[in-house]
Amino acid sequence: MFAKENVDYTLYLVTDSTMLPEGTTLESQVEAGLKNGVTLVQLREKETPTKTFIQEALKVQKLCKHYGVPLIINDRVDVALAINADGVHVGQDDMPIPMVRKLLGPEKIIGWSVGYTHEVEQLTKWGPEGVDYIGIGMVFPTNTKKNPKKAPMGPVGVSNILGALQEYEAKWCKTVAIGGLHPDCIPRVLYQCGSPDGRRMLDGISVVSDIMAAPDAGSATKKLRDILAKKRYDFIPGLISNSTTFHPDQMAEYLDRTKTNRPLIQHITNKVHQNFGANVTLALGSSPIMSEINSEFKELSLIPHATLLLNTGSVAPLEVLIDAVKAYNESQRPIVFDPVGYSATETRLNLNNHVLTAGQFACIKGNSGEILSLAGLSQGKMKGVDSGYNGSDLSLLIKATKIVAYRYRTVSVCTGKTDIVADGTFAGAYEPSGGMLGDWSSIPCFTIVCGDIPIMECITASGCSLGSTIACLIGGVSGNANVLGAVLTAVTLYKSAGQKASSRCRGSGSFHVELIDALYQFFTSNQPLEWAASIHQV
Ligand SMILES: Cc1nc(C(=O)O)sc1CCOP(=O)(O)O
Ligand SMILES: C=C1C=NC(C(F)(F)F)=NC1=N
To answer: Does the keyword Aminoacyl-tRNA synthetase apply (predicted)?
Structure first.
């Protein structure tokens, strides 16, 4: 008998004998997994007739006993009882949990598939005598589960479920994520998936094909265990989190590094912004390239100091955006994401959410309407892609900016009369099956105040070109990457240049030219103390 409270959910193998590679058997794959660190096994054989299923179950049970790992049976409560397995896993359409508990008794492990927060509310009603753990999924698309009824929820979806467990105080309930989990995305899932209150993260990861379909299931398992032992997701090597105050006299070093390193800034952006963004990039001593050709993304991302600016006002098809995100994440190069018109239309909302689940971003920048939507705080639809929100409630915007930074583990920027910058990266650190180092309210956040520049609203690509500026400053950092410092420098530089340009220009046409001149002059002279707007930590 396996004591329930000792179950280790770290690496949960779910079997599937329909995908076995040549020369392997269900037992050989399970044994390779058990030998190399699988901590929990679930026999899930949807197409197998009962007699065979029981024979397989007895063999797998013997293996599990040998390695001291519990065996869970999927769906088949009768089989679980017949062989005295350690527990069962049931889905939403299987036998109701109270009935399963009545049959199995209090000592057995009961798992439930969960995809929606109302299912968490239900399991809380049953209390600790009900569900012992939940499989949260599916996180990403997978071919393993036939006719799935749920759409992939992405890391944010997992975080919402973890948040619901906290909200309904289901402290006893353990969690694993499942669905399309492989070495290329598991590090990010471990880092990004956490409850909004920062107190709960995943207790483990569940895989089917990564091990069951592996020609060498042993090394596949080892690779997963290595990843699961980590406490940092290095999406930018050397990333540090600046929680002390930031002073304008630190800005010169950031500008100098961009000048020295001349970062390549790949723009995938809207047609309106392309030309202006390229000119802003050149004015800031960086090298722009506009490319939407998937096949060259990997190569570009490996160019020293390459940085991706993704502006979804672009007409690039979704898979181009996803390919770019994956290429730059794989090369551990920063991505600046500008979810233009985030929730202005259903199309943009879905496209932007799809991009957001596809990778990790160094910086997410938006106007107040976009940031409020991303934080889930907007009062309904935005109008168009211009700012839209003119409420003066700065504290609401500060809260929204922090929530976005925390939810996406990124440096978030909210532009407006006052610009707001928050750092939710925790320098890539997390506590496996513990919690983050605090909740959204505790993260570093700064405001940059330099008055309103009404004319900024009358030119195209003014917001988009702040994205180019941020990318130039982030792209320049080297060694200890303080993304927050780079972003604060970029936002201050851009706002100050906007001020200068609006005082010199004779209308919106000349404003464009004056803005590039001001950026060029401020960048070249590199005397930030002459122009830097005031920065306050909030
Ligand atoms: C068994 C199962 N349940 C899911 C859910 O979303 O509840 S997804 C899934 C299959 C996961 O297989 P793979 O690791 O090969 O992607
Ligand atoms: C449908 C399922 C969802 N989740 C899980 C697990 F991850 F193991 F909890 N197992 C399943 N069979």
So the answer is: no
